Amino acid sequence: ALMPSLEACYNLMDFEAVARQVMKKTAWAYYSSGADDEITMRENHAAFHKIWFRPRILVDVEHIDMSTTMLGTKCSIPFYVTATALGKLGHPEGEVVLTRAAHQHNVVQMIPTLASCSFDEIVDAKQGDQVQWLQLYVNKDREITRKIVQHAEKRGCKGLFITVDAPQLGRREKDMRSKFSDPGSNVQSGGDNIDRSQGAARAISSFIDPALSWKDIPWFKSITNMPIVLKGVQCVEDVLRAVEAGCDGVVLSNHGGRQLETARSGIEVLAEVMPALRERGWEKRIEVFVDGGVRRATDIIKALCLGATGIGIGRPFLYAMSAYGLNGVDRAMQLLKDEMEMNMRLIGATTVAELNPSLIDTRGLLGG
Ligand code: FNR
């Protein structure tokens, strides 16, 4: 089939359609799969359609400022590249392509533990005062984990995102069927006696510690000064507990629908979490991030209206990278920025700080 030109991609879904055609089958299976029947994966995006805007008119919207602060660092726009494993499945250069695009747009990148490039390669690809965070899978051997964390801090990472929704990897059947055979990665999985017939995900994740618990949080605080964020929190009780444990942030996320099937969407959890934090006067004590199914700037704006600090985007940048390399990710980010500027104008908000719950109608989301 003829490869559509990059200029023919007008939104983030267009990159997915091209990637599906041009990617290797195993790579497509790994990136695109969700757990079980992929109900949560679909819901992640669908949930945004249950929120409607209540725009304000006759606001002077000539100048739009989309910049914001996440974990103490200034960013051009409140979305970030979330951690996704195995970048070289989609592009021979892997995660550094995302690093370069993130630099061009002053966007934060979260580096995955299970990157295809080495951690140092991804940090070395950083330019200027570009900001990176580390996503951490906690090893059964805590000395390995300590080294990873302290090395990341030494290399300038500005946040530690501990993944807490994956004590065991979810069942991604598309990925399993494609009978993954070559991760092409540097992953130190602790020996090679792993069963690759279970798909890419299982093959590389056998070191992850299912015994990780709240009791470990003080230890993380003792080994690093990076802000600590729990990635994969899914209900208000755990957000409150994270505040009490002294965490600096949470990501409301279900891992892109790849873990617990029929887990709720991050945006729905956000609508539950923010009022509970405000009720206690705790909304300044923790930064709340959200990811999953974000494909349009309107999705980003809805999350900001609800009170999110930052919004993670995973698959769309992988697809853009796989189909078109750096130019693809660059265009995907530019499209999102353009959409965001236009939609803030149409809503009647000139800064991120002006986005608030009165600009959205969440009855469809919360009413069932
Ligand atoms: C992920 N995600 C993920 N999360 C994590 O904490 N560690 C990881 O190694 C990975 N790997 C990974 C690989 C792939 C291919 C995908 C699609 C996702 C989850 C990721 O950080 C994020 O939660 C979701 O991708 C967000 O959903 P969207 O934007 O992909 O819909």
Automatic annotation (TrEMBL):
**Reaction catalysis annotation:** (S)-lactate + 2 Fe(III)-[cytochrome c] = 2 Fe(II)-[cytochrome c] + pyruvate + 2 H(+)
The name under which this protein is listed is: L-lactate dehydrogenase (cytochrome)
GO BP field? lactate metabolic process
What stretches pass through the bilayer?
A: none
Native species: Penicillium coprophilum
Group of enzyme by EC: oxidoreductase
Cofactor(s) recorded for this entry are: FMN; heme b
- Every copy of the FMN hydroxy acid dehydrogenase domain together lies at 4-365
Note whether Flavoprotein occurs among the keywords: yes
On whether Metal-binding is a keyword of this UniProt record, the answer is: yes
Family from the record: In the N-terminal section; belongs to the cytochrome b5 family. In the C-terminal section; belongs to the FMN-dependent alpha-hydroxy acid dehydrogenase family.
EC annotation?
1.1.2.3
